[in-house]
Write a structure and sequence with these properties.
The complex is a heterodimer of chains A (412) and B (630).
Chain A (H helix, E strand, L loop, with lengths): L5 H22 L11 H19 L4 H25 L13 E3 L2 E4 L1 H18 L12 H15 L4 H18 L3 H16 L3 H18 L3 H24 L2 H11 L10 H13 L10 H4 L11 H34 L3 H25 L17 H24 L5
Antiparallel strand pairs in A: 1-2
Helix pairs in contact in A: 1-2, 1-13, 2-15, 3-4, 3-5, 4-5, 4-6, 4-14, 4-15, 5-6, 6-14, 7-8, 7-9, 8-9, 11-13, 13-14, 13-15, 14-15
Chain B lengths: L5 H32 L1 H12 E6 L6 E2 L5 E13 L4 H14 L7 H10 L5 E7 L1 H9 L7 E10 L7 H4 L2 E3 L2 H5 L11 E3 L2 H5 L1 H5 L3 E7 L5 E4 L5 E2 L7 E2 L4 H13 L1 H4 L3 E6 L5 E7 L13 H8 L22 H10 L16 E4 L2 E4 L11 H7 L2 H11 L1 H10 L17 E2 L3 H6 L10 H6 L5 E2 L2 H12 L3 E2 L14 E2 L4 H12 L18 E7 L8 E8 L6 E7 L5 H17 L3 H5 L39
Parallel strand pairs in B: 2-11
Antiparallel strand pairs in B: 1-8, 2-3, 3-4, 3-5, 6-7, 8-9, 8-10, 12-13, 12-22, 14-15, 16-17, 18-19, 20-21, 21-22
The chains are: A mainly alpha (412), B alpha+beta (630).
Chain lengths: 412, 630
């Protein structure tokens, strides 16, 4: 007899929503009014909308969704393409063209929808196949599915969301059964790029890669390809660096050494760390965080909302939030594992992938173990588009969990 | 499909959980480090982030006169500062402040410079603001983010123009002053003395600033003032009692401004006790030091720097003038000291209205001539011919060397830093080597003997010399607060009897003026008039230096009036000031007529225009641009 997963999912999501709302309320309590003042009330409205969206998505017949997936995917690509031409900047992403607006009215950030559509599209592609591809060549279609929206998003430019597409791709590939060594080889050029700033580290990586290629033995041509790609990345790094937008470059540099950029790009992460660090074990108390109150935490109701958690509730509050996130991801993985249908299983795991990438990116950024990318923290950051997209996905996962109850006899 | 078998999925789910758990472990570790291991460090950073130190300036010490009357005090004032995130927002707020209350005394670029120097400190816009301005700004505080208004003592000089030059004024330290070592412990925004006593005794007057802690938001608004021990009180500067006599100083100011003859002319007056304690120090045109507090307006600044008046130019210690007849006492002292003459010695050639030297005839001021006079009589009647011959007997080198020994090449050593040095050559070689003294001709000796020629003295230096004559014959630095220990001291080298003879000779020059002194005793003033001949067609400068009572001097006064024409015109004013000091505020006694038995020295004996003989331009005319800036 297995435990039902739909109720735990509801409970955990409910707790996270409550926690997030409490923190948003506190975010509005500052000494001088900021735009965060009444934000928790507006978030409450968005939560109602998001719950309605989840109610709809959880009742959608799976086959209809699977049938409609290419259209949804196509639509989101179209919207992203429109943004490249006619996007507007707003809120925390004022320097990028991530908002879709008609006649000055901002409708939302299509990238959030695109993330979900990409998950659906990848799920559809893999579920239609008997075996997961075992060659790099065979992976070209799924890579393309994730790469097209990622590239469109990069053009806005929004590095954070582009990373989320990578997260979605790797989560789906892994869950679809692509061998782990393949994933490592796939990721290897990026690792090479990241290590290229140090000649020593990069050299060591190239030796390690050579050993891995000998051990796992993919096709010879692919091995050569992988090795060449890694070599090229080391050289390309400089070219890429030159082509980056100043704010992206600033973020990378200040990520590596925030103190050296304390008055400009490193300012945000230093203030965030100061808030979190001064929170200590038990925090400064609900609504009482001095860093937040005096406005030193940047974007403390959106991108850096977790700094408020750290400052006011301390390590205890942080671990509680991380614990809830961990529980949510566990439940989602479990749902994906038990799913009777490969498509539903892949969709649920892909959604877990989105949530995980967002959490690790966002929370990691507040303590500077990840570079600053403006992506929201699920359940905590204020914002409608992401919340609605998140709950559309959670609605699907909930449906999958409910279906398992019916189909649980399928399992041994 | 084989990839979705139960066993496969369980394996992958375990792998996925492992990855997630690992990632969360990394995150938890980072938070543990920040919130437990490094927490105290972040806590103090958080504090310093929000809590800012605002320096609390110390009230300056008071300046008082010899009887404790206030010369400089502190009244409530306000300093306006602005926090800003960047230059643009600073300029925007400044523009709004300007719209509310015109910032015509403020250099906005300087405010920006101050902000750049310390962007995490509030930049000072102006200090010593009045309550009226503050109330306007306070009313519009909502439009002025980052506004900091702080009550700070504002310097006030109750007697305004009467004390302008001697007291000086205060202002924000300039970058150049900051760079110089003149103001130790001063920082940007510190109020320091700019001139006069405020400048000279700045270190003593300034006190030690305190500190106030305030909590501010990231946008620079003050949230709450840090109370409870988070406050370091400033230490008030030391009160300084000066040697000045405020009633006398006021009398001089009022006399000068209310007498048409004087009010139209520039000049200076210096009164001291024979010991060197300065009783009155006055330069005219004067200025109101209060105008400089909190920044001087451009209009006022232009008025003070008008080259016709040069109100900021100090004619007591910075102006240089030919000392003229009062210098004859110096030549007499040299002759006595060297034993060339006694008080009853006559010169070989009696005065017939002139003296033939080489091909030229040097005139005496009295065309009819004085006849054969003794040294005492020569002083009395100011006979030029007598002193021409005494100068020749001394010889050029001795004359120059003795003049230097008497301190005529030096400052008086008054405790005011801006004093200008006198101009007097040490030897004939100085004429050859430097342009300072022009060309030496044998006739120069004759010029020097009657206080003309390459000889430029400040009023302060001349009065100090007379103070030595009035006492023990030692010229010591005069002082307003305390005598400079390293100031120049010159022994005239005269015996008490010689000094007594010189004083006696001076009594008859001026003043038989009965002043109706208390007790009915006659107040006898001894002194010497002079008419300094200015080069380049400028009108002559009138001198009078005297002391009283002649037999036991209590006060020595020197007065110089540019374009004063005659020393005898100047003398009555000095006598009045002496009476004011010695007799008191009895107006009838002061106003009593002054009897000048000898009206002498109308021109001096120098050749007139076209016959100039090695004269140098005195520094009576101030430099066009004063170093003082608003």
């Amino acid at each position: 007899m297995t435990r039902r997963l739909d109720r735990p999912l509801l409970l955990i999501v409910g707790l996270l929503l409550f926690y997030g709302l409490v923190v948003l309320f506190s975010a509005g309590q500052t000494d001088t009014p900021t735009s965060a003042s009444g934000v928790w009330l507006r978030q409450l409205v968005w939560i109602l909308i998001a719950l309605s969206a989840a109610a709809v998505s959880s009742r959608l017949p799976l086959r209809v969704l699977e049938w409609a997936t290419p259209m949804l995917y196509g639509l989101s690509l179209l919207l992203l393409a429109v943004l490249v031409v006619a996007g507007t900047g707003a809120g925390t992403a004022s320097s990028t063209k991530s908002w879709l607006a008609i006649g000055g009215v901002r409708l939302g950030q299509p990238v959030e929808l695109a993330k979900l559509a990409t998950v659906l599209m990848l799920a559809r592609w893999f579920s239609a196949r008997r075996e997961a591809p075992t060659t790099i060549r065979g992976l070209i279609p799924p890579i393309t599915i994730a790469a097209v929206p990622a590239l469109l998003v990069m053009a806005q430019p929004d590095l954070g969301s582009a990373i989320v597409f990578a997260g979605i791709l790797f989560a789906t590939l892994f869950w679809a059964g692509v061998p782990v060594p393949m994933l490592v080889f796939l990721a290897s050029p990026v690792v090479s790029l990241l290590l290229s700033w140090s000649t020593l580290l990069w050299s060591l990586w190239m030796v390690a890669l050579f050993v891995m290629l000998l051990t796992w033995r993919p096709f010879l041509l692919e091995s050569i390809g992988i090795y060449l790609a890694n070599s090229a990345m080391g050289v390309l790094a400089i070219v890429v660096w030159d082509r980056m937008a100043p704010h992206q470059r600033g973020r990378i540099v200040s990520f590596l050494n925030p103190e050296a950029y304390s008055s400009t790009s490193g300012y945000q992460v230093i203030q965030s760390k100061v808030a979190i660090g001064s929170g200590g074990l038990f925090g400064q108390g609900f609504t009482l965080g001095p860093q937040k109150r005096t406005g030193f935490i940047p974007e403390h109701w959106t991108d850096f909302v977790f700094a408020v958690v750290g400052e006011e509730f301390g390590l205890v509050g942080v671990l509680a939030a991380l614990g809830l996130f961990l529980a949510l991801l566990s439940v989602l993985i479990q749902i994906a594992r038990r799913a009777s249908d490969p498509y539903a299983s892949l969709v649920t795991f892909g959604i877990a992938g989105i949530i995980f990438t967002h959490i690790f990116e966002n929370v990691g950024m507040t303590v500077s173990i990840m570079p600053i990318t403006g992506i929201p923290l699920p359940f905590f950051s204020y914002g409608g588009s992401f919340l609605v997209a998140l709950f559309l996905g959670l609605g699907l996962a909930y449906r999958t969990a409910r279906d398992e109850r019916v189909a649980s006899y399928v399992e041994n | 499909m084989t990839t979705f078998t139960s066993a496969e999925l369980r394996r992958r789910a375990q792998g996925a959980r492992l990855v997630v758990a690992g990632a969360f472990l990394v995150l938890s570790g980072a938070f543990f480090k920040a919130q437990v291991l490094d927490s105290s460090e972040y806590r103090s950073t958080s504090e310093s982030n929000r809590v800012r130190l605002v320096p609390l300036p110390a009230p300056r010490g008071e300046l008082r006169d010899r009887n404790g009357l206030l010369i400089a005090e502190n009244t409530p004032g306000y300093t306006i500062r602005l926090w800003a995130d960047n230059v643009d927002s600073l300029r925007a707020v400044l523009a709004r402040v300007d719209a509310l209350t015109p910032l015509d005394t403020v250099d906005l670029d300087k405010v920006v410079a101050r902000w750049r120097a310390a962007p995490y400190q509030p930049a000072q816009v102006f200090s010593s603001g009045e309550f009226r301005i503050v109330s306007i700004l306070e009313e519009h505080r909502a439009q002025l983010p980052g506004l900091v208004i702080q009550a700070e003592p504002r310097r006030f000089y109750p007697d305004s123009t009467a004390l302008g030059h001697v007291v000086g004024y205060v202002g924000d330290i300039s970058e150049r002053e900051l760079a110089s070592e003149r103001f130790p412990d001063a920082r940007m925004g510190t109020i320091v003395g700019k001139n006069g006593l405020e400048y000279e005794y700045d270190t003593r007057l300034r006190g030690t600033p305190g500190v106030r802690l305030i909590e501010v938001t990231a946008f620079g608004r003050t949230v709450r003032e840090g109370g409870g021990g988070r406050f370091v009180r400033p230490v008030v500067g030391r009160t300084i009692t000066t040697t000045l006599d405020l009633p006398l100083q006021r009398f001089v100011d009022s006399m000068w401004r209310n007498t048409p003859f004087l009010a139209e002319r520039s000049g200076g007056l210096l009164a001291m006790r024979p010991t060197g304690e300065i009783l009155a120090y006055y330069s005219y045109p004067t200025f109101d030091p209060n105008a400089f507090i909190g920044g001087i307006s451009q209009a006022r600044y232009n008025e003070y720097n008008d080259p016709k008046r040069s109100a900021l130019f100090d004619r007591v210690i910075q102006g240089g003038y030919p000392p003229a007849s009062p210098f004859k006492l110096a030549v007499a002292a040299m002759g006595l000291k060297r034993g060339l003459v006694t008080s009853s010695t006559r010169m070989p050639v009696p005065c017939t209205g002139g003296y033939q030297f080489g091909s030229r005839r040097f005139r005496c001021w009295k065309p009819e001539g004085h006849g054969a006079v003794t040294l005492s009589d020569a002083i009395k009647v100011s006979c030029d011919v007598y002193f021409y011959q005494l100068g020749l007997q001394l010889g050029a080198e001795n004359l120059l060397a003795d003049g230097a020994a008497l301190g005529f090449d030096d400052r008086s050593g008054i405790d005011l830093e801006r004093e200008q040095s006198s101009r007097w050559a040490h030897s004939v070689d100085d004429y050859v080597n430097g342009k300072r003294f022009g060309t030496f001709t044998p006739g120069q000796v004759l010029n020097l003997s009657i206080g003309q020629g390459a000889n430029v003295q400040s009023l302060a230096n001349m009065v100090t010399f007379y103070a030595a004559l009035a006492t023990d014959g030692v010229k010591r630095p005069p002082f307003l607060v305390e005598r400079r220990p390293d100031g120049p001291v010159h022994d005239l080298g005269l015996t008490p009897a010689q000094l007594r003879d010189l004083r006696q000779a001076m009594v008859d020059v001026v003043a038989r003026g009965t002043a109706g002194a208390s007790g009915g005793a006659e107040l006898l003033v001894a002194g010497k008039t002079g008419t300094g001949q200015m080069p380049r067609g400028q009108a002559d400068a009138g001198w009078f230096i005297g002391f009283a009572p002649y037999d036991a001097p209590e006060i020595v006064i020197g007065m110089l009036v540019e374009e004063g024409e005659h020393g005898s015109t100047v003398a009555p004013y000095v006598v009045k000031a002496i009476r004011r000091f010695l007799v008191g505020p009895d107006s009838a006694a002061i106003a009593a007529p002054v009897d000048l038995p000898i009206t002498e020295d109308l021109t001096g004996g120098l050749p007139r225009d076209g016959e100039t003989d090695g004269g140098v331009a005195p520094a009576a005319v101030p430099p066009a641009a004063d170093s003082t800036t608003p």
